Amino acid sequence: MTATALRFPATAGRIRLPGIAQVALFMFLWMLPFHSFVIAVMFGFLGMGAGFVRMVAAWKEAAIVLLLFWALIRSLSGRGGDTPINATDGLLTGLIGLAVISMIVADPLFHAGIPAGAQLYGFRDAVFFMLLYYVGRSIPEIAESEIVMKHAYFIALVISIIGIVERIFVTPEMLVVLGVSSYINDFLGLSAYTQNNAWGLPANYWTDIGGVPVRRAGSVFLHSQGFALPFLFLMPAASAWALNRKSRHGFLVSVGYVLIWGGLLVSITRATTVICVMQVVLFYLMMRRPEWALGSIVTLLSVVAVTVLIVPGLLHFAWETLSWQTGSGTTHLRDWGEGALAFFEQPWGHGLGTTDAAPLRFLRQPLTADNMYLSYGVQLGVLGLLAFVGMLGTILVKSWRSVWIAPTDNERRFFAVIALATFGIFLNGITSVVFSSNVFAYVYFLCAGAAMSAAQLLRPAHGASG
């Protein structure tokens, strides 16, 4: 996992993105990570009214609508790239259409009895953010620029430093004073997640290592899982930028890269950390640097060996994790069992707002949680699950193939980031609802849309050169 600079062919020309696209990337990479913290301070610390704060919190959804309108105008004016409809477009549109139909027919036709508010939250949490894919489709220039990778590195560094500082200096009492407890329990209505501690903080702020409760960092995301999930995109993007810097920047970038890994580690999220390691190893292989991939594995094993010797109970903790004996493992198995029963009981779907956090806001028990596939399958049935998996599968295949035929360094690295992030979704989705992270969901779908357009634009040029 060294950050020593790798040598790549020079990139042809500096690409300038449309102004609106730069604003969108700035909002989602620099403003969205601080969203939860700012809302918590406004509501819990400053005591602002819930109605006003909810209006402020809706800026991200309003941004999607405005960007979609801009993308439509851009495409109609012929500036969005001339790319035909592809399989990913069809599958994603089908998934969103199925979600709309579910909202319309779930209650009157199937008597689901889902509160309207829960359905709206379910729609927002399941598919609304995917509209950014269409925005990305109109901005294929993103794939030719290193702006995403560069800013991903720096925001990952900032939130990691905050996470490390928080873990050392910030106490649970200080989090309560800042308004985190009030935000989670009163604003979001998720008291079901805070019942295991006296501070009213999310349960995943702690994990048990060797019989000792160990506090995990949440950084500006206010809980550890929310802190870790964005790294499924940020880590491969930061790696793609940091490992390609010129030698004169090598030391400072290397220090920052180590801090980024430090931030991920203090979140103590086992699955996400392992997946990020796999992403970096695969990145080296995709960039035809197998010796660096082997070096990363050796470095990782060395770090693990030293950590096991230093941290009491860590080896036992690892064994409990692998054998599903931890509290989170037991919870996962219970939620998966309930979700599987709900899925097979009604394979056409129970409707939006019946899984994960949405029903808890309305004092209803979710049918399943902690599994991305069951979340979509239980809500939208077999068709929704197939459309969802197919959509991600086509993004993975197209971006992976494009890595090998892209003509410039920036495009190769960008396609690698999208492929690796999608790979991370498939794996991490087994134990979490990956798109519960707004930072990850928004940035991923915006960039995935750009990658699909750029991939289509590559093919004619590649064929002509052959």
Supply the key terms:
mainly alpha; two-stranded antiparallel ribbon; 466 residues
SSE diagram, text form:
Blueprint: H1 19-31, H2 35-45, H3 50-57, H4 59-76, H5 87-110, H6 116-126, H7 132-137, H8 147-169, H9 172-178, H10 180-187, E1 206-209, E2 212-215, H11 224-228, H12 231-242, H13 250-266, H14 270-286, H15 290-310, H16 314-322, H17 327-345, H18 372-405, H19 409-428, H20 438-465
Antiparallel strand pairs: 1-2
Task: Please give the share of residues in helix.
Answer: 55-70%
Structural class: mainly alpha
Mean pLDDT: 88
Evaluate the radius of gyration: 22 Å
How many helices? The count is: 20
For the sheet with most strands, the description reads: 2 strands, antiparallel
DSSP summary, beta strand count? 2
Percent of residues in beta strands: under 5%
Pick out the low-confidence regions.
1-13
What coarse outline follows from CA principal-axis ratios? globular
What's the quick description here?
67% of the residues lie in helices and 2% in strands. The protein is mainly α. The longest helix has 34 residues, at 372-405.
Description:
There is one protein chain. The chain is mainly alpha-helical and 466 residues long. 67% of the residues lie in helices and 2% in strands. It is built from 20 helices and two strands. A two-stranded antiparallel sheet has the order 1-2. Strand 1 (206-209) and strand 2 (212-215) form a beta hairpin. Helix 8 (147-169) crosses helix 13, helix 12 packs antiparallel against helix 13 (250-266) and helix 18 (372-405) packs parallel to helix 20 (438-465). Mean pLDDT is 88; it is low at 1-13.
